[in-house]
Design a protein that fits this description.
850 residues, Four Helix Bundle (Hemerythrin (Met), subunit A), Rossmann fold, six-stranded parallel sheet
C-alpha cells in the first residue's frame, strides 16, 4: 500500500475512534437519531477503507476480513438501536473499540508501506545527476520508482518559449521511462519528487515545461528534493546562490559541507544536506567496469592517447571571439598527430546558446564544426550521455568553469585546463606576459606576486626580481596580489586569502588572520594605507577591513558596500575607484554620483553626492593633495572635487576620436575611458583604461587634447599571453603623483617607461626575472586553488603541445594526489552518494524541515 494511503487509513481509524465516543455520548443522552446517523457513517467509512485496502492488497488481506466483521457488528448495533432495544452505552463502546484495535494493528504492522518516488529529468545528458538515486530506489522492493522525462523549450530572443524538445526515447535501455502526460500528479500524490532543474522561469536559454516548475510540483509531492545537475571542482558560480527551486524544495543536496555558506542566508539550514554528487557515482561505477566503446570510435582510438575536449557555455559567453579562435588552435594542435586522438564533446546547450545569445558568431562555430567533423581525424561526440566519453578518455583538456573537470578529477584522470586567450605556441619571451601583472600605485613596487602565489623581491629597488617565498599552499587562485608598506613593514594583501602576510627579504614573518568569508573568488579588489592603517577594499567580502599596524588590531567596517561595488544593467560586476586624502578614505560608486567617505581613525562613514552633469559612476579617484579627480566609469565627465569646500568642476570636452572598447568582447562603448591621472604644473595627464588615447587636460581652460607618449605603446596585445585591461597606464606611486617624472606601464607588451613630462625625455626600465627561478617555480600538476583542485594550467611554460608531448615543466601528474584533492570536496565520494540520498529521504518522510 502506498504511504499516502496508509496515512489515509490511519485517518479513517482515528475518525472511527472519535465516532465511537460520539455514539456512546448520544446513547447516554438517548439521542436515537444521532446514534443511528453515526453508526451509518461508521459503516460507510469502514466500507470505503476496506475497498481501498482490498484494491491494493487483495481480498485475502486480514485487515479486509476484519473490516467486514466490524461492519457486521456495526449493523447489529444499528438494528438493535433502531428497534429501540435497551443497550449499554459503555458496553457498545467497548465492543466497537475491541473490534477496531486489531484492524488498526493489522494496517500498521502487516500491510507493508510502499513509497512512490518520481524522477523528473529533462535533458538525458543530465540524467547522471539522478541515476544512482533511481538505482537505489529501484532496488527497494517497497518502492515504486518512476522516471518521467519532461519536455523543455528553447527560449526565443524575446524570452518567449520556442521549439519544444523531448528526449525520453534517448535514455539507456535499462531505464524504463513513462510518458509525462500518463502520470497524474493530482491523483498519484507522489511521496518524493526529485528534480535537477532549479530555474523555473528564470533560465534565459531554455525552460522546462511550466507545469514542472518547482512552485507547481510542490503542490503534489510530500517531499520535493533538488539535486544539482552539475558537480564542482571546488567553486560555485554566483548564479547558483539563489534559484527559484531552492525556496520550494524541502531539501537541497550539496556536494560537500563546505558549500553550505554559499547558499542564500534566507534558506533554512535544515534544507541543505551534504550527501555528495550522484554524478560522481556514475563515473566511478563505469570507470571500474568500462563498457565497450562505440564501434565508430574504436579505429580512431586504437593505440592512441584519447583527450576529451570540452567546450563550455561559460567559456563561450565569457569571450566568444577568443573561444572560437581557441577551437581552431586546438584542432591544429591535434590534426595529423599519430599518438593522440581528440574527442570533442561540446556542451549540449552550446549551439542553442549561440542562437539565443551570440547569433552573430554562430556561422563561425558552424564552419569550425564542419571542419572537424568532415576531417574525420577525431571523434565528435554528441551522444546523450557523456560518461562513455569520460570512461574512454585518458585526459581532459578544456575550460575550468565546468562540471566535467570534477568528473575527470574524481576519476583520477589528468586535467589540462586551457586558456581561451592563447591561440599560438609560446615564443621565447612570452613568459613576460604571464609573470608581469603590472604595478600598483598604492603599493611597494619592489615586491611582486607572480606565478600564482609566489613572492618576488627587487632588493636593489631596480625592478630586477628574485624569488623570495611561497605565500600559499595553492599553486594559483590569485590568493595574494600587492604589497603595501606601512611604517617600514611590508604587508602582502589578499585578494582571495584569509590573512594579510607580513614579509621581509628573508620571507614570511607572520600572518594576520581575517574572519573567513570566502565562498567564491573575489574577496578584495583594493588596498591602500592611511597613516598607521592598512585598508582592504572588499568586492564580495562583507566588510572593509582596517588593520591598525601600530596596535596590531583588525576592525571590520560594515555597511554601504553597495556604494562602491555593484552590478551594472549588463550584468557585469562594477567596482568603484578609491583614494585617501587628508586622513579619510574615499570610495566611489561605479554606477552613480555617490562617494563613501570613511574617517580613517574612527571608521565613521558618510556619503557625499557629486552634482556635476553626466556623472555615471567613477572608476578611479586620484588626489592631487587638495582636489580629488574623479575619472568616469561610464561617459565623458571628469569631475574635479574639493572635499573640504565642496567645490566641483566638470570636464567633458574629450578629444575627437576618443573611443573605448571592451577588452574581452571588443565592442565599442564609453566605459572606463581612463585608468589613472598624474599632474605636472597646471596640467593633468590621463592614461587610457579601455580608451584608445592618452589625454592632456589644462586645469584653467578645461581644454583636453590627445597626448602622444614619445615611446612606443602598442594598441593591441602582442598575443594571447599578453592580455591586459588597457593599452597603458601611469603607475607612478601615489605619493609622487604630482611632479615631472612619472612611470608608464605598457600593458600589451609588458614594458615599463620613465618619462620627464617637462622635457619629454624617456627611458625604458628593464623588468627582470631569473628564468631559472621561474621554471623552478612553475607548478605543473598541483592543487590549483580551493575553487579548482588538482590540475595543470596552460601557459607560456606549459603549452598544449608540451602536454601532448609529455614535456611538463613543474610537478608531473600524480593520480593519488588528484584523487585526494577531489575527495576532499565531495561527501560519499566512494560511489555511494545516491544510496545515501535515498536512505536520507526515506528517513525524513513525515519529518520535513519547517
Amino acid at each position: 500500500m502506498r504511504r499516502y494511503q496508509k496515512k489515509i487509513a490511519k485517518e479513517y481509524i482515528e475518525l472511527l475512534e472519535q465516532a465511537h465516543s460520539a455514539v456512546r455520548r448520544s446513547m447516554e443522552t438517548e439521542d436515537e437519531r444521532t446514534v443511528l446517523d453515526l453508526l451509518g457513517q461508521c459503516q460507510e467509512a469502514a466500507i470505503h477503507l476496506g475497498t481501498m485496502i482490498e484494491a491494493e492488497e487483495g481480498e485475502d488481506c486480514r485487515a479486509v476480513r476484519m473490516l467486514e466483521e466490524y461492519c457486521e457488528l456495526v449493523f447489529q448495533i444499528y438494528t438493535l438501536a433502531g428497534q429501540k432495544q435497551a443497550l449499554n452505552p459503555a458496553k457498545v463502546h467497548k465492543q466497537l473499540k475491541k473490534q477496531l484495535i486489531p484492524i488498526e494493528n493489522s494496517i500498521k504492522h502487516e500491510i507493508r508501506e510502499r513509497l512512490e518516488v518520481v524522477f523528473l529529468p529533462y535533458k538525458v545528458s543530465m540524467w547522471d545527476s539522478l541515476e544512482s538515486i533511481w538505482m537505489a530506489a529501484e532496488q527497494d522492493e517497497n518502492c515504486d520508482a518512476y522516471v518521467i522525462p519532461i519536455p523543455y523549450f528553447d527560449r526565443n530572443q524575446d524570452r518567449s518559449l520556442g521549439q519544444m524538445h523531448y528526449e525520453g526515447e534517448q535514455y539507456p535501455d535499462y531505464v524504463p521511462v513513462l510518458w509525462y502526460e500518463d502520470y497524474d500528479f493530482q491523483e498519484r500524490q507522489p511521496d518524493v519528487v526529485f528534480i535537477h532543474n532549479p530555474y523555473d522561469d528564470c533560465n534565459f536559454v531554455t525552460s522546462i515545461h511550466p507545469f514542472f516548475y518547482s512552485s507547481n510540483l510542490k503542490r503534489f509531492a510530500d517531499l520535493l528534493v533538488y539535486i544539482p545537475y552539475y558537480s564542482t571542482a571546488g567553486g560555485m558560480s554566483e548564479g547558483q546562490r539563489q534559484c527559484p527551486a531552492y525556496y520550494h524544495a524541502d531539501y537541497i543536496v550539496m556536494q560537500a559541507e563546505k558549500y553550505r555558506r554559499f547558499f542564500d542566508d534566507a534558506l533554512s539550514q535544515e534544507k541543505l544536506v551534504a550527501l555528495g554528487s550522484p554524478k560522481f557515482d556514475r563515473v566511478i561505477r563505469l570507470c571500474s567496469n568500462p563498457p565497450e566503446p562505440p564501434e565508430a570510435w574504436k579505429e580512431k582510438m586504437a593505440g592512441k592517447r584519447v583527450c576529451f575536449y570540452n567546450t563550455s557555455i561559460n567559456g563561450m559567453l565569457g569571450n566568444t571571439e577568443g573561444f572560437l579562435k581557441k577551437m581552431e588552435y586546438v584542432f591544429r594542435c591535434f590534426e595529423g598527430r599519430k599518438d593522440t586522438c581528440l574527442l570533442w564533446r561540446p556542451h549540449p546547450l552550446l549551439e542553442s546558446t549561440f542562437v539565443s545569445m551570440r547569433p552573430q558568431f554562430k556561422p563561425v562555430y558552424d564552419t569550425l564544426k564542419r571542419y572537424f567533423v568532415s576531417g574525420d581525424w577525431g571523434i565528435y561526440d554528441d551522444s546523450p550521455d557523456m560518461t562513455d566519453a569520460i570512461v574512454h578518455s585518458d585526459a581532459y583538456i578544456g575550460d575550468s568553469a565546468t562540471s566535467v573537470t570534477s568528473l575527470f578529477g574524481i576519476a583520477g584522470k589528468p586535467l589540462f585546463v586551457l586558456n581561451n586567450n592563447i591561440h599560438s605556441v609560446p615564443e621565447e619571451e612570452d613568459w613576460r606576459g604571464e609573470v608581469i601583472r603590472g604595478f600598483f600605485v598604492y603599493g611597494n613596487q619592489n615586491w611582486m606576486v607572480a606565478q600564482g602565489n609566489k613572492l618576488y623581491y627587487a632588493q636593489k629597488e631596480d625592478f630586477q626580481y628574485q624569488y623570495c617565498c611561497d605565500l600559499s599552499e595553492y599553486a594559483r587562485g590569485d590568493y595574494y596580489i600587492w604589497t603595501v608598506t606601512v611604517n617600514g613593514k611590508n604587508y602582502v594583501c589578499p585578494t582571495n586569502a584569509n590573512d594579510i602576510v607580513e614579509v621581509t627579504a628573508q620571507g614570511i614573518k607572520r600572518r594576520i588572520p581575517l574572519e573567513n568569508h570566502l565562498e567564491q573568488p573575489g574577496a578584495f579588489y583594493g588596498f591602500i594605507s592611511c597613516g598607521d592603517y592598512l585598508f582592504l577594499i572588499p568586492n564580495y567580502y562583507p566588510a572593509i577591513v582596517k588593520y591598525d599596524t601600530a596596535k596590531d588590531t583588525v576592525q571590520y567596517i560594515q555597511g554601504n558596500q553597495d556604494v562602491f561595488a555593484g552590478t551594472a544593467p549588463n550584468g557585469e560586476r562594477y567596482l568603484g575607484g578609491y583614494c585617501v586624502c587628508d586622513g579619510k578614505l574615499y570610495l566611489a560608486s561605479p554606477l552613480d554620483n555617490r562617494i563613501l567617505v570613511v574617517y580613517a581613525h574612527t571608521g565613521e562613514q558618510k556619503i557625499a553626492a557629486l552634482e556635476a552633469d553626466g556623472v555615471k559612476g567613477f572608476c578611479g579617484l586620484v588626489c592631487d593633495g587638495t582636489d580629488i579627480w574623479c575619472l568616469p566609469y561610464e561617459g565623458k565627465t571628469i569631475v574635479r572635487w574639493n572635499p573640504k569646500t565642496g567645490e566641483q568642476q566638470g570636464y567633458a570636452d574629450l578629444p575627437q576620436g576618443l573611443t573605448c572598447k571592451h577588452p574581452v568582447r571588443k565592442y565599442e562603448c564609453m566605459t572606463i575611458p581612463f585608468s589613472r591621472a598624474v599632474f605636472y604644473q597646471n596640467e593633468v595627464f590621463l592614461s587610457p583604461g579601455w580608451g584608445n588615447m592618452f589625454v592632456r587636460l589644462d586645469k584653467d581652460s578645461g581644454k583636453m587634447t590627445e597626448w602622444k607618449p614619445p615611446f612606443p605603446v602598442p594598441e593591441k596585445e602582442k598575443n594571447g599571453y599578453f592580455t591586459f585591461s588597457g593599452m597603458a597606464s601611469f603607475v607612478t606611486p601615489a605619493k609622487n603623483v604630482s611632479g615631472r617624472e612619472h612611470l608608464v606601464f605598457s600593458g600589451y607588451d609588458r614594458k615599463l617607461y620613465k618619462i620627464d613630462l617637462k622635457t619629454n625625455e624617456w627611458q625604458e626600465i628593464d623588468i627582470g626575472f631569473d628564468r631559472t627561478d621561474l621554471e623552478k617555480g612553475e607548478a605543473g600538476f598541483q592543487k590549483e586553488s580551493q575553487w579548482l583542485q588538482y590540475c595543470c594550467l596552460e601557459n607560456a611554460f606549459n603549452s598544449l603541445p608540451d602536454f601532448l608531448d609529455g614535456n611538463i615543466t613543474g610537478h608531473a601528474f600524480d593520480r593519488q594526489s588528484q584523487l585526494d584533492a577531489y575527495g576532499s570536496i565531495a561527501a560519499n565520494h566512494d560511489g555511494t552518494s545516491g544510496e545515501k540520498i535515498y536512505e536520507f529521504v526515506k528517513e525524513k518522510l513525515g519529518r520535513k524541515p519547517t
